[in-house]
Design goal:
The structure is a homodimer of 428-residue chains.
Chain A: E1 6-18, E2 21-33, E3 36-41, E4 53-63, E5 65-71, H1 86-98, H2 104-120, E6 123-129, H3 134-147, E7 150-154, E8 156-157, H4 170-184, E9 191-197, H5 205-217, E10 221-226, H6 230-239, H7 246-252, E11 261-265, H8 271-280, E12 283-286, H9 288-293, H10 301-306, E13 310-313, H11 325-342, H12 352-364, E14 381-384, H13 396-406, E15 412-417, E16 420-421
Parallel strand pairs in A: 1-4, 5-6, 6-7, 7-9, 8-9, 9-10, 10-11, 11-12, 12-13
Antiparallel strand pairs in A: 1-2, 2-3, 4-14, 14-15, 15-16
Helix pairs in contact in A: 2-3, 3-4, 4-5, 11-12, 11-13
Chain lengths: 428, 428
């Protein structure tokens, strides 16, 4: 074994192997070999005694955050127009903004700011919707590769029920998607294209069928929206009365777990849809801020967890206003408490460790062995200095809870992705 | 008229004279005379043409934020223990911390950090619960006076159903309260003692009666908690079956609007209680983050507003985790959207201007002519630099919305209280 490929970090190590509790190693060690976790232990293993330890003292070392749902072109709209529900908000704010991304100069300006914001907030992996535009999607893929952050980036597909400047020709949409998949699927280990039908109402059956085939052909991941809003669910039922649930439409076209798939929202998923998600291993991207802001409701996260459905967290910029995974964790816990009340105590609220799990390992699983400090996991990590949040003579578990609730990007000192320290992204 | 006492500020002026809309003066002028607003106008009035204008360029000028409910001694507990409901949370986290404030050195260390946090977040006026301790309450009053920020600070009264180290002797409790009122009621124009029965379950009728009399004698304001949690409401009903509502108990003892009164939470106030609040002019301090965190529920803010009850915003540190009025505004809007769903569309959600109103003029009214830029109002203001939030070529209304949703303390450049610029508080 060459010791050259080994790094050892020391500090207060916190992660969630399971959602039920924090695993905490006070003054513990993480041994990283070839950019992956080799082991985590309370004392330094004898065989590594000659290796220089990078000592982070009393700081916290936690997994990087994973954001499984956000829209790059909506970044400039954060905090705007949130007096509307989903469908009118799309028409008024979202679609006009998305039409601008045929202009690569404009796109680049926005993407720079988006990637910096993700970096700042310690979001080391993310699942991104771009627009319909092929060239700007490639630009965003290239910019993520340059940044060192991990991401799945999808050219959006939509060929019906959209404004004229965003409605694609079906064959052209598939052709552009395939071109991106071919060029980028193997270009980077951590930045990849993802098949991205916008949502059922904006995709013809022919387009969904073609996208399902492309996902399979290129072994690509899939992302879309599901059961966000009652009007949207009713619209899908009207468009496809032949299917039992909204999710069944995607399923029919090979876009519901046939390849690894994440579905954003799932606020109004019924028991049949939840069963299908469980059966197919479909991930939920729970986006509580967006579901609040667009008056969509509160997703039954406890029900998903009880039934073994995989759940992750999404910011849903700009339905959600904040890229902060901390804010999303807090909102997830808070929303679950309102759901606990609504269910008259049937659906337990989320604990802090569960929210942390959703924001790390829960979403990380969509990327592979990501989001935890277990053997063979990619070393994606954040170094947290929480001295400004109060006294440090409380337990490490209390310190991580306090950081989640009252910390912000200023507490994140360093970010690592697959073992490499990521500096603030700079683009020309 | 001496021009020496006149100051003129220029910038993009935003405030809410009424809750229904933002009043916006793009590149407008605020004329301040003797620390109060003289006028606000789009061009500089002729008679002031010789006065030097303090030009804030393209920045926003908004009223300072008003936080009508928070607990100073709970500041170190922010973000801790939020997996519990109100009553167990009080027992486990709150009361043990509050017992420490007989130690003035400990108290001072916490108060320094609290006042700095309020300053940082642009909270220019606040209503504060301290502990039962007389000396630490005086210390906190003195520290606020030194800081230049406005505050009502209350020595908490509790003489039943509390842990032994926090249960007061009734007469001593009244005596200590009177001593503080006598010494401080006229000491400062903007920092004053406030009568603060903790809540009905912890105050005997004798204590409440005495506090009502003291409030009247010293013409002092009153604050307490009301109808936060179903168990608490049931407990009050059990203690006082002779009263129609929880609020009626306070009312009976002269603590419900006989002097200006603010009641925190009011999540479970029924129609009778709401009518009494309206009749007596009692202010609600709506604390959405706390109500989420402690699983209390969502207050019927729209119902309060429809019925003409005065509503303000509270952080409720540390039931609420954040001192940011921006976060509280967003939570208020989001909570109202969930209440809109629960009421099947009967209770409209809050607009952004309504949330802003609650955080400025709504709470400011409790302090006098505070929280708006109207003639004779105290000039309490924040200068906002929002350049880092995105492009500035959107409307001023959109810029204020964006600041509310995605801004933070870093966007607050300057803070003014009654016309004076307030620097970051420094204590020995």
């Amino acid at each position: 074994m060459s010791n050259q490929s080994i790094k050892i970090f020391k500090g207060n190590i916190v992660f969630t192997k399971t959602k039920n509790e924090f695993t905490i190693l006070e003054n513990g060690y993480i041994v990283i070999k070839d950019d992956k976790i080799e082991e985590v232990s309370s004392s330094i293993p004898e065989k590594y005694k000659d290796i220089n330890v990078i000592d982070h003292g009393n700081k916290l070392i936690i997994p990087g955050f994973v954001d499984t749902h956000l829209h790059a072109p909506q970044f400039p709209n954060r905090g705007l127009g949130l007096d509307k529900e989903l469908l009118p908000w799309l028409e008024t704010y979202t679609f006009p903004e998305e039409a601008k991304y045929s202009d690569l100069n404009y796109a680049k300006k926005v993407y720079k700011r988006l990637i910096s914001e993700l970096w700042k907030n310690g979001v080391t992996r993310s699942c991104i919707f771009n627009t319909i535009h092929k060239e700007s999607t490639k630009l965003l893929l290239d910019m993520f590769i340059k940044s060192g952050l991990g991401a799945f980036v999808g050219k959006v597909n939509m060929d019906r029920n959209s404004s004229s400047d965003l409605t694609e020709n079906t064959q052209q949409s598939l052709k552009d998607t395939e071109e991106i998949l071919r060029e980028y699927i193997d270009k980077s280990d951590i930045v990849k294209p993802i098949v991205t039908p916008r949502f059922v109402p904006s995709c013809t059956p022919e387009l969904m069928k073609g996208l399902g085939e492309l996902a399979k052909k290129y072994n690509a991941h899939v992302q879309s929206h599901l059961s966000e809003n009652p009007s949207e669910v009713a619209w899908v039922k009207e468009l496809h009365p032949e299917f039992d649930t909204y999710g069944s439409v995607y399923d029919h076209f090979g876009l519901f777990g046939q390849q690894p798939t994440v579905m954003a929202h799932c606020v109004h998923s019924d028991d049949n849809e939840i069963s299908l998600m469980k059966k197919n291993g479909v991930f939920v991207s729970h986006c509580p801020h967006s579901n609040y802001n667009l008056s969509s409701g509160i997703a039954p996260v406890r029900k998903f967890l009880n039934q073994g459905v995989k759940v992750s967290l999404g910011s849903d910029i700009s339905g959600g206003h904040t890229a902060s995974s901390l804010h999303c964790m807090v909102a997830a816990v808070q929303a679950s408490k309102m759901r606990w009340i609504d269910s008259e105590g049937e659906l337990d609220s989320l604990t802090t460790s569960e929210a942390f799990y959703l924001a790390t390992k829960g979403g990380g699983e969509f990327f592979g062995k990501v989001g935890s400090f277990e053997k063979e996991y990619d070393f994606d990590a954040l170094i947290i200095d929480d001295r400004n949040l109060g006294e440090l003579d409380i337990t490490i578990k209390e310190r991580i809870q306090r950081f989640i609730y009252i910390g912000d990007d200023r507490n994140i000192l360093e970010r690592y992705v697959t073992g490499k320290k990521i500096e603030e992204p700079k683009f020309d």
